[in-house]
Amino acid sequence: MLLNLGKVVLLNLIILMSLFSCESVNDCNEYLNETYVEGNSNLEDSIAILVKQAFVKYGEVEELETKLESYRLVYSHSLSKISNIWTFEQNDKGCVLTFKEFEYNIENEKPELKEILEIDLSEKEWKHVKYLITNFNFWTTKQYIANEVADGGGYLIDGYRPGAGQCDKLERKIVIRSGALKGDEISWMCSDLISIYLHKSDK
After folding, report:
1. d(Cα 81, Cα 77) in Å, to the nearest integer?
2. Model's pTM, two decimal places?
3. Sign of the C-alpha dihedral computed for residues 153, 97, 158 and 28 taken in this order
4. Residues in Cβ contact with 163 at an 8 Å cutoff, skipping those fewer than 6 apart
5. 20 to 30 A Cα–Cα from 161, which one of 23, 46, 62, 88?
6. Quick one: three-class SS letters along the chain?
7. Which residues of the chain fall short of a pLDDT of 50?
8. pLDDT of residue 161
9. Whose CA is closest to 58, among 78, 74, 69, 79?
10. 114-132: string of b/e by CB count within 10 Å (b at 16+)?
């Protein structure tokens, strides 16, 4: 009888292990078409440090540390005192979109938070965010592209997806686009992400 009981326990363990194995494989299926091009990880360490320092200046965390997937988008323009930050954080119901607007007068002065707004996005809307991230190749595109102009704007977006490293894929990435860039897919993606906020905030 003890022998039979041992067999039952062993069988249950095998089934349980197979379930976890299948779950792991299914999770990695999301990244099957994600391939990295040599040279696209071109963000210099000095710039990455400046980015972290800037986030601290704005009262933000240096790196996203969320339970689920999240993205943080920053836009600023050389001719404006205003900078905006949008954070898309996945949750069990879909996503929370947090908008912050800052104003500064002197470069070394800490920016002043002028507005903060939280908006709940549905699961369908979160899937659209994910579609934009995937369709515009955020995780595989070149990290840094700049067209230095005197009156240009710039986007910075950082992403975090915990668990992707278990599939040998990136868990974190920062992408920067600076200046007037025609036909750049990341600039289009950022514009579309901001449109989600504009659409929701008008309601």
Report:
1. 8
2. 0.84
3. negative
4. 27, 171
5. 46
6. CHHHHHHHHHHHHHHHHHHHHHHHHHHHHCCCCCCCCCCCCCCCHHHHHHHHHHHHHCCCCCCCCCCCCEEEEEEEECCCCEEEEEEEEEECCEEEEEEEEEECCCCCCCCEEEEEEEEEEEHHHHHHHHHHHHHCCCCCCCCEEEECCCCCEEEEEEEECCCHHHHCCCCEEEEEEEECCCCCHHHHHHHHHHHHHHHHHCC
7. 2-3, 5, 9, 11, 13-26
8. 96
9. 74
10. eeeeebebeeebbebbbeb
| Residue 148 CB coordination number (10 Å) | 8
φ, ψ at 192 (rounded to 5°) = -70, -35
Is the torsion defined by CA of 17, 34, 178, 96 positive or negative? negative
CB 93 within 8 A of CB 177: no
Decide if 99 contacts 116 (C-beta within 8 A).
Answer: yes
CA atoms within 13 A on the CB side of 110: 7
36 φ, ψ (degrees, to nearest 5) = -100, 135
- Rounded Cα distance, 140 and 36, in Å: 5
End-to-end CA distance of the chain: 67
